[in-house]
Design a protein that fits this description.
It is built from two helices and no strands. It is mostly helical and 149 residues long.
């Protein structure tokens, strides 16, 4: 009987150790389950952030393509404007040369010697209100003609 008693005490001790180990293991599993739910939430947020980042990248690419097309159009317009400016400058030079040659060909009116020299620089008459130029181009042409005199 003494042998059975020792064996029962030994089994009871091992049961106590097993129960304490099971309690410790249960606590760790509970913490791990809580961490698992937090990890799932974190993974869901990460997936959502990844989707938003991909959408943003797609929008950035579209914006970059639009910007490139606008830049190309602006470059073409700039080249066209440079051509028009050069062309307008050469036309203005030809017009100026034509005005100068026409003035050289025009007979100069002779002034009587009795008039004082101050009267020679008489200002040209101003145009009437109804004959004033209507556009900026006409006004600019008249200014260029007056300055060429």
């Amino acid at each position: 009987m003494a042998f059975a008693l020792v064996l029962d005490i030994l089994v009871a001790g091992l049961l106590i150790v097993t129960i304490s180990y099971a309690v410790t293991l249960n606590r760790r599993l509970r913490v791990m389950r809580q961490d698992k739910s937090e990890l799932e939430k974190l993974a869901a947020k990460f997936a959502e952030s990844t989707i938003r980042a991909e959408e943003s990248i797609a929008r950035l690419r579209r914006t970059a393509d639009e910007l490139k097309s606008h830049t190309d159009k602006a470059q073409n317009l700039r080249e066209d404007l440079a051509f028009l400016i050069d062309r307008g400058g050469s036309m203005a030079d030809r017009l100026e040369d034509g005005v100068r040659s026409a003035r050289k060909k025009m007979p100069q009116p002779e002034m009587p010697a009795s008039e004082p020299p101050a009267r020679e620089k008489k200002a040209p008459p101003r145009p009437k209100a109804e004959s004033r130029p209507q556009t900026d181009a006409e006004r600019e042409l008249i200014r260029a003609l007056r300055s060429a005199r």
